[in-house]
Model the fold of this input.
Amino acid sequence: MIDLHGRNINKLRISLTEVCNMACTYCVTSLSDHKRAPDELGADEMLSLVRMLKEHAGIEKVRLTGGEPLLYPNLIPVISGIREMGISSIGLTTNGQLLARKAKALVEAGLKNVNLSLDSLDPGNFKRMGRVGKLHKTLEGIEECLKIGLRVKVNMVVIKGENEEEIVKMLEYGVRRGVEVRYLELMAMGPLYHKDDFKLVTMHEILERISARFTVQPVSADTDSTSLRYWVPGGYFGIIPNNSAPFCSTCSRLRLTSNGQLIGCLSNPTPLSIRHLLDHPDPAEPLQNLVKKSVSYKQDATFTGSALVMSRVGG
Ligand code: SAM
Done:
């Protein structure tokens, strides 16, 4: 679907469940904030909605996230169901705590790539930032993906005073393991919305630290990519400059919550439920109208954030 600003909205990001086994300090105030939606969709219902969005709204790529998608009981049938409907671009965003033992089955089901959230390579700092979870489990998940040939990127949210000293160390790790690291500028979402003490590390600060250690050259990224991409000797890295240079003007995403609500924009997150269309005899037109309305909430250029928690909208 092409929106009023000429963006081709063809990517769907699904929060399969709001439940998570980590409680990152910038995402929630405590682990108990991650509550399963009482009306969370089952796998068949979720697949029916994805099929409708593919057939009637032009969705071509799907990313499964959450919450923690590896806690969704029917993740494998969801992946294989999406593949069977002819969508080949299927990605997963995960904290990797449960990945090592599930990666092979995920690939066999049709998973094509994984974005691993990894904010620190120091076990103590990892625990401080994530509250729950163990560094070695996420690292084992990455190693298993590499072993079976699954494409992996690492996402590191950079926070002032918490992990900025690890920017270079993370890139060295990425280069050593052949994994592209992407640095995410902190976003004013959920508990950080309107927070006075917003511990932003800007893309310029990130680049400054890396340039002091590596020769850095910008390279082109996909036109609808959210990240700026750079070459360094031995590899590549990316920066997702949510604040310094938001990617709103090329944002091609639509989000679907675990209970069947569309969210068109993180900065204007008015949810529109499409779940009732599961029982509709001819859902094409009402679905297209709801998608158009949801997409019309997209900002033209500026990311402002919102009170919405990322695990609900699918980070
Ligand atoms: N549990 C999975 C994981 O940890 O990757 C998927 C859900 S998590 C909400 C998805 C991504 O959102 C993670 O990479 C996380 O770091 C990012 N995220 C959450 N809150 C954020 C914030 N305030 N600013 C920037 N990124 C954020």
Notes: The chain has nine helices and twelve strands. The first helix runs from residue 43 to 57. The mean pLDDT is 94. The chain has one domain: 11-310.
